[in-house]
């Protein structure tokens, strides 16, 4: 999905060109984040929820959640399927249907479903950090009639990047 035009990679690409699938595995990685999101704090934390206003969240919490799509490191506005296998845009551009990969799972092994996605997007619009709710002002809601696909709807004349923003938001488990 792109806000401005064609994508660099075909639908069935195996990996981004800057990724070496044969790279050595293992080791240790440690980093102090170069930036922060929403309520994250560079120095301390008292919350693991970085998607609300209250508290100081630990850095990097966004790395613990799946998203519908992932940004490409070599295309500034492009996103490719992550939990979503594909997306279908309506002719008028006011709705996007995301099809969830059957192999998408949460950390505990439970199935990640379209209903989890709808729950997550709607709760972030309603109760998320003010920066999130402001960016979601042209997102009218998400609905999942089954576990396989979720439809996100948008207001007319919305910003072209709003669908990209929702595709990059975290997916929470409804059960938790």
Return the average pLDDT rounded to an integer.
Answer: 90
Order the strands across the largest sheet as they lie in space: 3-4-6-5
What is the beta-strand fraction? 15-25%
Number of distinct beta strands? 6
Q: Strand pairing plus helix content: what structural class?
A: alpha+beta
> What are the low-pLDDT stretches, counting only 5+ consecutive residues below 50?
none
Q: What's the story with the biggest beta sheet? A: 4 strands, antiparallel
Oligomer: single chain
How would you explain this protein's 3D organization?
The chain is an alpha+beta fold and 176 residues long. Helices cover 15% and strands 16% of the residues. The strands form two sheets. Strands 3-4-6-5 form a four-stranded antiparallel beta sheet. The chain is globular and about 45 Å long. The protein starts with 68 loop residues before the first strand and ends in a 9-residue tail after the last helix.
């Amino acid at each position: 999905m792109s806000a401005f035009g064609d994508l660099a990679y075909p639908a069935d690409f195996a990996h981004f060109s800057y990724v070496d699938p044969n790279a050595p595995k293992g080791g240790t990685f440690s980093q102090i984040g170069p930036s922060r999101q929403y309520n994250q704090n560079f120095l301390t934390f008292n919350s693991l929820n970085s998607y609300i206003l209250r508290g100081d969240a630990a850095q990097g919490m966004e790395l613990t959640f799946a998203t519908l799509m992932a940004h490409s490191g070599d295309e500034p506005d492009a996103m490719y399927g992550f939990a979503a296998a594909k997306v279908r845009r309506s002719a008028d551009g006011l709705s996007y249907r995301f099809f969830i990969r059957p192999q998408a799972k949460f950390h505990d092994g439970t199935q990640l479903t379209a209903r989890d996605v709808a729950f997550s997007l709607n709760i972030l619009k309603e109760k998320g950090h003010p920066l999130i709710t402001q960016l979601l002002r042209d997102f009218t809601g998400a609905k999942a009639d089954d576990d396989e696909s979720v439809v996100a709807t948008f207001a007319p004349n919305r910003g072209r990047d709003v669908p990209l923003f929702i595709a990059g938001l975290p997916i929470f488990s409804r059960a938790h």
